[in-house]
Amino acid sequence: MKIAISLLIAFLVVMGIYKTYQYYHDVSERNMLEEKAATGADINPDSLPGLPPQLEYKAKDAKAAGPVAFKNFLDACKQYPDVKDPKLAWMQLDYAVMISLTDPVEAKKIYFEVKKRTPEGSPIWPRLKQLAKTYE
Q1: Which range marks the domain in which residue 31 is found?
Q2: Are the C-beta atoms of 129 and 45 separated by less than 8 Å?
Q3: Per-residue DSSP letter, 1
Q4: Which pLDDT does position 46 carry in this prediction?
Q5: How far, in Å, CA of 56 to CA of 47, rounded?
Q6: Same-domain status, 14 and 79
Q7: In whole angstroms, what is the distance from residue 90 CA to residue 123 CA?
Q8: Listed range (7-16, 78-87, 101-110) with the worst mean pLDDT
Q9: Global pTM?
Q10: Model confidence pLDDT, tens digit, residues 60-92
Q11: How many domains does the chain have?
Q12: Are residues 69 and 118 in the same domain?
């Protein structure tokens, strides 16, 4: 009888340790996911709405061609009513990052324009918060 009670107690201790470990693991994973969401690390810029599909490849080509071509593309996008936030704001922030070393004043101007028109619940808000350390 002593052996059965000892085995039962040992089993309960092992199960308690296992459940505690499992709880700790779940909480830490949930915190990591919340942190990624808060920093915007899980945002896919290609999935943001606001850019017609026929302009997607032009945007990628212009971005690859450099800051001047990307700026010309962004200026041309102002003619299209279909191009809107959050994709437009994301592309403008990309451009601001591209020119931040060569023209920091223009980069700050673009950052503040985007920040002024972007609500706090926007999918690009975490990126704005992340870039605030650089531009404010």
Answers
A1: 1-42
A2: no
A3: -
A4: 76
A5: 11
A6: no
A7: 10
A8: 78-87
A9: 0.69
A10: 999 999 999 999 999 998 888 888 888 889 999
A11: 2
A12: yes
Both tokens of residue 110?
């673009």
Tell me how far apart the alpha carbons of residues 113 and 118 are, in angstroms, rounded to a whole number.
9
How remote is the C-alpha of 42 from its chain's centroid? 5
- Residue whose entry in the numeric block shows the structure tokens 């002593």: 2
- 37 with 56, same domain: the answer is no
The amino acid present at 94, given as its one-letter code, is D
How far apart are the C-alpha atoms of 114 and 20, rounded to whole Å?
46
- Tell me: do 18 and 57 sit in the same domain: no
In a shared domain, residues 102 and 68 = yes
Same domain, 61 and 95: yes
The rounded distance, in Å, linking the Cα atoms of 69 and 77 is 12
pLDDT digits (tens, 9 = 90+) for 113-131: 999 998 888 888 888 888 8
3-state SS track over 53-106: HHHHHHHHHHHHHCHHHHHHHHHHHCCCCCCCCCHHHHHHHHHHHHHCCCCHHH
Three-state secondary structure readout of 28-50: HHHHHHHHHHHHCCCCCHHHCCC
Task: Give the whole-angstrom CA distance, residue 114 versus residue 108.
Answer: 10
Query: Residues 27, 50: one domain?
Result: no
